[in-house]
Each structure stands twice: as structure tokens, then as C-alpha cells.
């Protein structure tokens, strides 16, 4: 009996101290859990708190294990499973470099407009687009650009937050 | 009054004193010289000089397990810290509270590949419960106190504090433990009462119940063991325990079924397999215990009490999870059981005990008694008789002798039995015995050993001699790495690849060369004699070399990948039945 693999977005509030990210990543690699994406930055300068958003996948039992394992790390304040805890918004930012001339260049620009991507760098033969959206939207955009001279893409990975008035 | 400034090294010593440390196990080196200088200038904390840093950690484990206090270790940077790694992981696997202090190169040299530099916090991160690198002397006292708090709270474990040499020299301010409160770490001790009530209902209605308890009860302190005994007596249920939990419930009690798991008793394993309600208190469904997961206690409802939420539903899905300290949960269980005037279903229980007694009558620990050769089981039975009624502690190394010791030595109290369970570290027993002996100078401390394990940390005889720790090293010498040989026989066609103990020393002469007493038994008649002589030695270590049957295997055995009802009882059980292809890949 194979259990269903679920994808979960988990937000973790941690002390911003040396080694804390290594602890989180070491936990995932050491125990063989998946990380599909991971982002981290300080969110509270006064209290030195950082917020880690990670997207992972596994059976229900594994996802529960991941949360319990994260929660028992000493510098971890809170662990929230945004996928379980009601509606949330998820966004990714991407920078996408496309090189080309003529029709391909015009088409890239038209598509960027449709996706509401911003041009943040332009030369006569290239663009760098900045795009914010869901992972699926960014996937679609990068997929289209691949046919129009994609040079490289850089993505932040998912940041996420629950909907509504309450917070962490 | 102006704040008194202390050096970092003095802060370390003051923090250790304020944390109640009386013994620290360590080995000096360049990066910890200031702390050693501070140790030299005081008399409250006794430093025990080991011969290898791994042994310092195991000795601290023996000290911690036999006293319930936090063990303390001091090592230098680089190789000092890397040598301690095995001990730290051992303590993590078995939830032993330790604080390990390591020296580090001065802060300005960190990252420069300096002499004896190692990324100690990086290396020990997965081997400790938590670790710290202290770069500011004014954070040192706080960090030390936090380290002790984290080590002993919740599920206990080892904590490492890495202290650069310049921080040890620098002047800073000391703060006492009372002024330190950890920002985030607050393990749940008290259980959710609704869950305990649910559990009580399930327990009261059980027809074929069993208690399955583990090291968590021992870690929760002697009161938890008393409460466990009280509750088990109140219910009248059978009880089994893991290797780590031995002694929490008295082995002399008729409700005790012996250890369960791979080398557990027939009655314990079959009671687990056939139970309808399993009450797990402080055990973690380790693979040595569960065997084949899909056939683990298939018809049972499971209650799991654990202070570590990540232990619950990790290997085995349970019906009633209860997060909390074993002692606190047992207290609530007893209170609610009494308040609701619960009584076990006596008819069902009588029938269940009838079944259990039937399994017990199989006498699974029986072995081939002979006068021709010393059976290791026989030697342990004689040791058991000699220790009966005496104040004693037992440590072990790892392998066949460890399993036999667990099967044949009974423990009626917690904190008397120290063994490397989770990590299975050969070489654990001798230093752990030294740690236990120094904590209990008047007790008898026996390291039940094998000749191969003993060789792994035998340099520690020097430590035992220096501090007049009269530990008894009871070597069941079968000239093989016995457990390796047993698996090679059962699973690898008797191809004994590299498991023979070639070029062994003369253990009696070895003992004498250290100024210890060396004894040897080669015939059955000599066993009692050497045990008697061994117990008469009280001023120095004693090495006892017992030449046991080299071919003896440890039974009962549930081969890897098999279920609790597929037990091998002895050599008459065909090994080929025991070698499923999928079982072979398991350890």
C-alpha cells in the first residue's frame, strides 16, 4: 500500500544565529527528506529572528515527522504548516535573462507584458525580466522564454503567508 | 559594588560549580590550557584525566546514567574534539545529558586552517542535541548555563560548547544560572489530560494488554520508575522493556517478562505480537525492537508516551499519542485510574496471563549446560549469583556479551545498567564503568566485556589505576567478534571474514603490567573461584579473562526483517529459514 505523497509549504521562525540554516538543511539531508525550495532572511531585526519558508514533499507521516523534527531544534521558535492551516498566498520572484534579436526579441517582450514581468536590464540584444508570481506562473514564463533565447534564470524559491488578519 | 571581572576560563569554572559539577572528564591540549590553569587553582571540581577523549565522553555518560546528573567533559580543539565525536553521538542516541567543553583556536584564526583547528560546531552539529561557539566572553556564562539547561531538559542529550582560546583569556562578566532563561526551548512536561483520560479508558478495557517501556522512564528519574512499578502493579498487566529501560521495573517481579526485541525473550515478543493494547512509555519503536514493521503487534491499539514529539508516529503509527515526561504522565494515569475506580478485566487478564505463562514455560533462555566448556551464559549466571544483594552497577561493551548480560543479569532499580544501545559503540563499557565507579566509590562496578570490545578502549585501565577505581572488567573471551561471527554464520554461509580475534594479549599479564589484578578461568570449576577473587579486590582494577565457548550463539533471535513470532531458539533452528534476501540487507 503506497501512501500518497503530499506537497507542503512550511514556515519556520528561528533565531538568526550562526549555524541555524545548517541545522535545518542538515536535518533534511541527514534524514533523507526532500527540499523543493527554501528561502530565508531576517524578518525581525530587533529580536534577530529569521523566517524560513520551505517547500517539501512526503507522505503524511513524513511531513508530520519533518515538522516535529524542525520544532525540536533548539533555536526554532515556531513551525507552521501553511498547507494544512487554511488558505495562504505563495509567491516567487525570478530574474530571467533572454538574448535575441528581431521577432524573437519582440515576442519575448510581448510575453513579458502579458505576464506583467518588468524589464530591469536591457541591451540591444538582451533583456533581464523580473517576474513575481506563483511557482506555476514562473515555470510557464521560463518555459516560454526557453523557446525565445533564454540564457539563464534565477529564482528565489517560494515565500508564503497565511491569508487573513492573524499572523505568526 | 563594581562588577567583578573574571577571565573566560574562570567563568567556565564558576559556571560548572554553580551547575553542581563535581567531576569533569578530560584531556588537556593547547587550546584549553587557560581552563586547565583555572582547574589547577581550585579544589571543588575534580578533573579526571582519561587516556583518549572518546573515553572521556563515555566516562561522563557512565557518571550521568548512574547518578541522573549531567556529565561533563573537557577536550582540546581539533583532534581532541574529533575524538569526542563518537561519544557525543552515543550520548545523543541514548539520550544521556552531557555538556562537552571544547577548546578552539583563537577567534582571529578561525577559518585559517590553524594548527589543531577543526570546524567543531560543524562536525558535532548532527552528533549533539545542540552546540555553541562562544565568540564573546560576556556571552560565556549565559551559554554555559543554557548548555546545562538544554542538556538535561526534555529528552536529554549532549550539548557542546566550543570556546576559542582568546575568549578563555579575555575578561568578562559572570552571571549566575538564576538569571538565565532560555529564549525558546520549553519542552512539554505535563501531558494533555484529555489524552491521558482516553488512554486510561483504553487500558481499563484491554483484554490482552502489555506495558512496553524504555529509557525514557529511567531518564525521568527514580520517581518515574517507582510510579511505573506502582501503575503496573495496580493494573496487573505484563511488562517488558527495551535494552535501555532495564531496571525501571524490578526484574524480580512476576509481572516482568524480560527484555523484548531481537534478542528479547519469547514471552515478551509473543506478548507484544498478540497484545490488543500496548502501553509504550518512554520507548521509541526502534528497529531492534519492532522487527518487521508491517507485522509489528498487528492487532493492537497503541498508546505512546514520549517527551520528544518527533519520536511519536516516526516508525509506528499510534492511536493515542501523549507528549510529556514519563513521570508526569504516570502520575496523571495513576490519579485518573484511582479517581475513576478502574479495574482491569480480570477474566480476560487471567486468560491472557495463562497464554503468557505458556510462552514463559518455553524457557527460551535455556542453553546447553555442560561441564566441558564454559558457556558465556553460565559465567553470567554465576556473576549474577555473586552480585545478588550487593550494591552494584553493570556496564557493557557491544555484541553477544551485551545481549547475554541483558538477558541474564536482573536489575531491580533504574540507573544500575549502562550500555550503548542506540549507537552500539564497542569500547563504551570500560570508560563508562570508570565514570560510574567514581560516582559511586563504594559500589561494585562490573564491565561485562568481550575481548574485542575491550581492546577498543583498554588504554583506560591507566585512568582506572590512576584514580584507584576498582572496576571489574569481566571479559567473556570467545576469541571472536562474537556477534559478527554469529551473523556471518546465519546470514553469510559461515564465511568468517575478519571476525577472528588474532594476536590477543595475555590479559592476566596485561593486568599485571598496569599493577592491576589479572585472573583467568578456563574450566567451569574455576568460574566461581575467579568471581570470588575478583570481588575481593577493592583497591585497584581487576581484569578477568574467561575462556568461553567460541561457537556459542546468542538466542533467542529474531533475524533481521522477521516478525516477533518468527523466533530462532537455538542452533537446532535451521539458519536457512532465517535468511530472507530482504532481511540480509538489514543490519
Based on secondary structure, the structural category of chain B is alpha/beta
Strand content of chain B: 15-25%
Helix content bin of chain A: 25-40%
Q: Total number of helical segments of chain B? A: 23
Shape of chain B: globular
What percent strand of chain A? Answer: 35-45%
Fraction of helical residues of chain B: 25-40%
What value does the average pLDDT of chain A take? 95
Per CATH, which architecture of the largest domain in chain A? 2-Layer Sandwich
What's the structural blueprint in terms of helices and strands?
The complex is a heterodimer of chains A (168) and B (587).
Chain A: E1 6-15, H1 20-31, E2 37-44, E3 49-58, H2 60-71, E4 76-81, E5 88-99, H3 102-114, E6 118-122, E7 126-133, H4 135-145, E8 150-155, E9 159-162
Antiparallel strand pairs in A: 1-3, 1-4, 2-3, 5-7, 5-8, 5-9, 6-7
Chain B: E1 5-7, H1 8-18, E2 23-26, H2 33-40, E3 46-49, H3 53-67, E4 71-75, H4 79-93, E5 98-104, H5 120-124, E6 130-133, H6 140-152, E7 158-164, H7 165-169, E8 171-173, H8 193-204, E9 209-213, H9 215-219, H10 222-235, E10 239-241, E11 256-259, H11 266-274, E12 277-281, H12 287-290, E13 301-306, E14 320-323, H13 326-339, H14 346-360, H15 376-387, E15 392-396, H16 400-408, E16 417-418, H17 429-439, E17 444-450, H18 451-456, H19 461-466, E18 472-477, H20 482-491, H21 507-513, E19 517-521, H22 524-536, E20 542-547, H23 581-584
Parallel strand pairs in B: 2-3, 2-4, 4-5, 5-7, 6-7, 9-10, 9-12, 10-11, 12-13, 13-14, 15-16, 15-17, 17-18, 18-20, 19-20
Antiparallel strand pairs in B: 1-8
What can you see in these coordinates?
With 168 residues, chain A is of the alpha+beta class. Chain A has helices at 20-31, 60-71, 102-114, 135-145, and strands at residues 6-15, 37-44, 49-58, 76-81, 88-99, 118-122, 126-133, 150-155, 159-162. The longest helix of chain A is centred in the middle third of the chain and has 13 residues, at 102-114. Chain B has 587 residues and is an alpha/beta fold. Chain B is 38% helix and 16% strand. In chain B, helix 3 (53-67) runs parallel beside helix 4 (79-93). Chain B starts with a strand and ends with a helix. In chain B, 56% of the residues are buried. Chain A binds chain B through residues 15, 18-19, 22-23, 26, 30, 61, 64-65, 68-69, 71-72, 74-77, and chain B through 121-122, 125-126, 129-131, 133, 150, 154-155, 183-185, 308-310, 312-314, 317.
Amino acid at each position: 500500500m503506497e501512501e500518497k505523497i503530499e506537497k507542503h509549504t512550511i514556515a519556520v521562525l528561528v533565531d538568526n544565529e550562526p549555524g541555524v540554516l545548517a541545522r535545518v538543511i542538515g536535518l533534511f539531508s541527514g534524514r533523507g527528506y526532500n527540499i523543493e525550495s527554501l528561502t530565508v532572511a531576517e524578518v525581525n531585526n530587533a529580536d534577530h529572528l529569521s523566517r524560513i519558508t520551505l517547500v517539501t514533499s512526503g507522505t503524511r507521516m513524513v511531513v508530520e515527522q519533518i515538522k516535529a523534527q524542525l520544532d525540536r531544534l533548539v533555536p526554532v521558535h515556531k513551525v507552521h504548516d501553511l498547507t494544512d492551516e487554511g488558505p495562504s498566498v505563495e509567491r516567487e520572484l525570478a530574474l530571467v535573462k533572454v538574448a535575441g534579436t528581431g521577432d524573437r526579441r519582440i515576442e519575448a517582450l510581448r510575453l513579458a507584458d502579458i505576464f506583467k514581468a518588468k524589464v530591469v536590464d536591457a541591451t540591444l540584444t538582451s533583456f533581464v525580466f523580473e517576474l513575481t508570481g506563483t511557482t506555476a506562473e514562473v515555470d510557464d514564463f521560463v518555459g516560454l522564454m526557453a523557446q525565445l533565447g533564454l540564457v539563464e534564470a534565477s529564482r528565489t524559491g517560494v515565500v508564503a503567508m497565511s491569508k487573513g488578519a492573524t499572523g505568526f | 559594588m563594581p562588577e567583578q571581572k573574571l577571565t573566560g576560563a574562570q567563568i567556565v569554572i564558576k559556571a560548572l560549580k554553580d551547575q553542581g559539577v563535581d567531576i569533569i572528564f578530560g584531556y588537556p591540549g593547547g587550546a584549553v590550557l587557560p581552563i586547565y590553569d583555572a582547574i589547577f587553582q581550585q579544589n571543588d571540581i575534580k578533573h579526571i584525566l582519561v587516556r583518549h577523549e572518546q573515553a572521556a565522553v563515555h566516562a561522563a555518560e557512565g557518571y550521568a546514567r548512574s547518578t541522573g546528573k549531567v556529565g561533563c567533559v573537557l577536550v582540546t580543539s581539533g583532534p581532541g574534539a574529533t575524538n569526542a565525536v563518537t561519544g557525543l553521538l552515543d550520548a545523543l542516541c541514548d539520550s544521556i545529558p552531557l555538556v562537552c567543553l571544547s577548546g578552539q583556536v583563537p577567534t582571529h584564526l578561525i577559518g585559517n586552517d590553524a594548527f589543531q583547528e577543526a570546524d567543531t560546531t560543524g562536525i558535532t552539529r548532527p552528533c549533539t542535541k545542540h552546540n555553541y561557539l562562544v565568540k564573546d566572553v560576556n556571552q560565556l556564562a549565559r551559554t554555559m548555563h543554557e548548555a546545562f539547561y538544554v542538556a538535561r531538559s526534555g529528552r536529554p542529550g549532549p550539548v557542546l560548547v566550543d570556546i576559542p582560546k582568546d575568549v578563555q583569556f579575555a575578561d568578562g562578566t559572570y552571571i549566575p544560572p538564576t538569571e538565565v532563561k532560555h529564549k525558546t526551548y520549553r519542552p512539554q512536561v505535563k501531558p494533555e489530560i484529555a489524552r491521558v483520560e482516553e488512554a486510561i479508558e483504553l487500558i481499563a478495557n484491554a483484554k490482552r494488554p502489555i506495558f512496553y517501556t524504555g529509557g525514557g522512564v529511567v531518564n525521568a528519574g527514580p520517581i518515574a520508575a517507582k510510579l511505573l512499578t506502582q501503575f503496573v502493579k495496580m493494573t496487573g498487566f505484563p511488562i517488558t522493556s527495551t535494552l535501555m529501560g532495564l531496571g525501571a521495573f524490578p526484574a524480580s517481579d512476576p509481572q516482568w517478562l524480560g527484555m523484548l526485541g531481537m534478542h528479547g525473550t519469547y514471552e515478551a515478543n509473543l506478548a507484544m505480537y498478540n497484545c490488543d493494547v500496548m502501553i509504550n512509555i518512554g520507548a521509541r519503536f526502534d528497529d531492534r525492537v519492532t522487527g518487521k514493521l508491517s507485522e509489528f503487534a498487528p492487532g493492537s491499539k497503541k498508546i505512546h508516551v514520549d517527551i520528544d514529539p518527533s519520536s511519536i508516529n516516526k516508525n509506528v503509527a499510534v492511536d493515542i499519542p501523549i507528549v510529556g515526561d514519563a513521570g508526569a504522565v504516570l502520575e496523571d494515569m495513576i490519579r485518573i485510574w484511582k479517581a475513576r475506580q478502574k479495574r482491569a478485566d480480570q477474566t480476560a487478564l487471567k486468560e491472557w496471563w495463562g497464554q503468557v505463562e505458556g510462552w514463559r514455560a518455553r524457557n527460551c533462555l535455556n542453553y546447553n549446560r555442560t561441564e566441558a566448556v564454559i558457556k558465556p551464559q553460565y559465567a553470567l549466571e554465576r556473576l549474577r549469583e555473586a552480585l545478588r544483594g550487593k550494591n552494584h552497577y553493570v556496564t557493557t561493551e557491544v555484541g553477544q556479551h551485551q545481549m547475554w548480560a541483558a538477558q541474564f543479569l536482573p536489575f531491580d532499580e533504574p540507573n544500575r545498567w549502562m550500555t550503548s544501545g542506540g549507537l552500539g559503540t564497542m569500547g563504551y563499557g570500560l570508560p563508562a564503568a570508570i565514570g560510574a565507579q567514581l560516582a559511586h566509590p563504594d559500589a561494585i562496578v562490573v564491565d561485562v566485556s568481550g575481548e574485542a570490545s575491550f581492546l577498543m578502549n583498554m588504554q583506560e585501565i591507566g585512568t582506572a589505576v590512576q584514580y584507584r577505581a576498582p572496576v571489574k572488567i569481566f571479559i567473556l573471551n570467545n576469541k571472536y567478534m562474537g556477534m559478527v561471527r554469529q551473523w556471518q554464520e546465519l546470514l553469510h554461509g559461515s564465511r568468517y571474514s575478519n571476525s577472528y580475534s588474532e594476536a590477543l594479549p595475555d590479559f592476566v599479564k596485561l593486568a599485571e603490567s598496569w599493577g592491576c589484578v589479572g585472573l583467568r578461568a578456563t574450566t567451569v570449576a574455576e568460574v566461581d573461584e575467579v568471581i570470588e577473587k575478583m570481588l575481593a579486590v577493592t583497591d585497584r582494577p581487576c581484569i578477568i579473562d574467561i575462556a568461553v565457548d567460541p561457537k556459542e550463539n546468542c538466542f533467542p533471535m529474531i533475524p533481521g526483517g522477521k516478525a516477533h513470532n518468527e523466533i530462532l531458539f537455538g542452533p537446532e533452528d535451521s539458519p536457512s529459514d532465517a535468511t530472507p534476501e530482504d532481511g540480509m540487507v538489514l543490519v
